[in-house]
Task: structure prediction
Amino acid sequence: MRAIDNVKILLLNTAKEVIRDEGLLDFNIRTIAKRAGVSVGTVYNSYPSKSELVFETMESLLRECVSYIKKDSGTDLFAEFREIYFAILGYFGLFKGDIMDDLAALATSKDKPQPMVRQSHMMIFKETFFRILQTHQSEIDPVVFERFGIDKIIEMILTLFTTQLRKGEKNYELIDYILRQTLARKP
Result:
């Protein structure tokens, strides 16, 4: 591994610590440099802008979150979605401040167009939901699959999850009810 790769890994890991400890909105290059034991110039040699470092750090954190929930629980579709919801809620609870609002603020980054940031982060969750729906396809009403397709189903689930996660909602009943009414195979 090249020295520059080691520096980038150090900076990325340090940036994740700073976001967890201080929140995304208080994230700054000087703090990263100081905690990593490098100069501000070294940070900018690895990441030309603060937004680029924030973007890569959030990508890494979201992948970390998804890998935390990727294990196949062997349960039914609806129990697996419940487990994922609470895993995400718990993971985001590790951060100082409101990480969902911080992510929304990131989406308005000057260096990365908003749709690109949002699509990149949402793709991480879409991949997970796609895998789960494929694994549990026999539990889903085939009419729903035929009529709407997997992409629209994933979009609906993402919307439900995002809306409730933004509120920090610990009551999963509404999501469970909507998913069961919409997706469950009819007897």
